[in-house]
Write a structure and sequence with these properties.
The protein has 167 residues and is mostly helical. The protein has 7 helices and no strands. Helices cover 80% and strands 0% of the residues.
């Protein structure tokens, strides 16, 4: 916006008129660019909130799964499964949940955008596969972070104590 203002002042100086007498596409474009910058900032803030909800959702789902299956996990440990293997099992579960949620969310997002298209308007959605792969990589990181506490809880439980639980 500052560049547009400087350009406006330069043009006004060249034409020997006041900046209030200028108008047209330049100012309109600068206004739209400013509006789009604000909308982009709002969308990024909403994306950050969505990522927090995503992490909490994966973490709570994995935690609940670990709590509900403490006897099963203890039985697996008693049968010879190591702590590392149990942790890997729980991490993989969180990874599957995270990847499925990411793909389903992406599909619903694409359908939502397509539903906004006005009749007679031709829209060809373009999937930037590099960006989509980056999102999937982010989902993997989120799954690893969200499963850390449930994995710790499951691996700290003694198999004998876990089998003795009545829950």
């Amino acid at each position: 916006m500052q560049e547009a203002t400087k350009l406006e002042e330069s043009v006004a100086k060249i034409l020997h008129v006041g900046t209030d007498e200028l108008g047209g596409a330049l100012l309109e474009k600068a206004g739209y660019v400013n509006l789009l910058d604000i909308l982009l900032a709002v969308m990024l803030a909403l994306l950050a909130v969505a990522m927090v909800v995503f992490v909490l959702g994966i973490a709570s789902t994995t935690s609940l799964s670990v709590l509900e299956r403490s006897r099963e996990n203890s039985l697996l440990r008693a049968l010879g499964l190591s702590k590392r293997q149990l942790g890997a099992l729980i991490r993989r579960e969180a990874l599957v949940i995270s990847l499925v949620a990411t793909v389903v969310g992406w599909l619903f997002g694409m359908l939502g955008v397509m539903s906004l298209v006005v009749e007679g308007m031709t829209v060809r959605p373009v999937v930037r596969w590099g960006g989509f792969l980056l999102i999937l990589a982010g989902a993997v990181v989120v799954a690893a972070i969200a499963s850390a506490l449930p994995v710790r809880r499951a691996t700290k439980l003694n198999p004998v104590e876990g089998l003795a639980r009545v829950d």
